[in-house]
């Protein structure tokens, strides 16, 4: 039984390019983001990866990335479940602001705490701890059981919602997870043991 779980952060968005806090806002992919998503699909195809089901967030950039990956795999009609539980972390009052402008307004140290601490939320938004608290229950209820039944599962989502999953899969702590960065459009390929721990992990960052 394969127990395949692939995590993919969406390709570069228009607001990634502009260095803006995005959160639950819904900008589209850039041309580079489209190519990153397609390249992710090609890398998976080169390793003969196919899926039985896909999960994505309620946000367009993740949905577009998911669709482009599946298109490259020749699986454009695959069942895909979209749920806000997999949305990016909500940056609250920071959403839509340039990160440099935010530093000028609140100070480098305060913005760093909001961005990189585990449990301090920005004004009106979510901490990484809050994001973990909604992503993990959904994963345990909807995604992991399918993987453990032998279904091959793709999750196309966001940097912070996927960090919540990587934290558990890789055994990271609340002290180490804030330093983890996930590149846009780079699939993480996990194969799990029958006790749900990781048997192998591969980062598909090159063709």
TrEMBL record:
It holds the Pfam family His_Phos_1. The gene is gpmA_1. SUPFAM superfamilies: Phosphoglycerate mutase-like (SSF53254). The active site is at 10 (tele-phosphohistidine intermediate), 88 (proton donor/acceptor). It comes from Methylobacterium crusticola. This is 2,3-bisphosphoglycerate-dependent phosphoglycerate mutase. Homodimer. Substrate binds at residues 9-16, 22-23, 61, 88-91, 99, 115-116, 159-160. NCBIfam families: pgm_1, PRK01295.1. Catalyzes the interconversion of 2-phosphoglycerate and 3-phosphoglycerate.
């Amino acid at each position: 039984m394969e127990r395949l779980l692939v995590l993919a952060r969406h390709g570069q968005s228009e607001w990634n390019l502009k260095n803006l806090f995005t959160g639950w806002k819904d900008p589209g992919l850039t041309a580079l983001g489209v190519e990153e998503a397609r390249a992710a699909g090609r890398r998976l195809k080169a390793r003969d990866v196919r899926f039985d089901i896909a999960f994505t967030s309620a946000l367009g950039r993740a949905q577009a990335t998911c669709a482009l990956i599946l298109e490259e795999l020749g699986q454009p009609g695959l069942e895909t479940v979209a749920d806000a539980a997999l949305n990016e972390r909500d940056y609250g009052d920071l959403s839509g602001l340039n990160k440099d402008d935010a530093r000028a307004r609140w100070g480098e140290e305060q913005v760093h705490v909001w961005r990189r601490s585990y449990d301090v939320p920005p004004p009106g938004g979510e901490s990484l701890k809050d994001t973990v608290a909604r992503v993990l229950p959904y994963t345990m209820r909807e995604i992991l059981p399918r993987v453990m039944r032998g279904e091959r599962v793709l999750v196309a989502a966001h940097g912070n919602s996927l960090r919540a999953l990587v934290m558990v899969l890789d055994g990271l702590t609340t002290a180490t997870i804030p330093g983890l960065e996930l590149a846009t459009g780079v699939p993480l390929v996990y194969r799990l043991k029958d006790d749900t721990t990781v048997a192998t992990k591969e980062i598909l960052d090159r063709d």
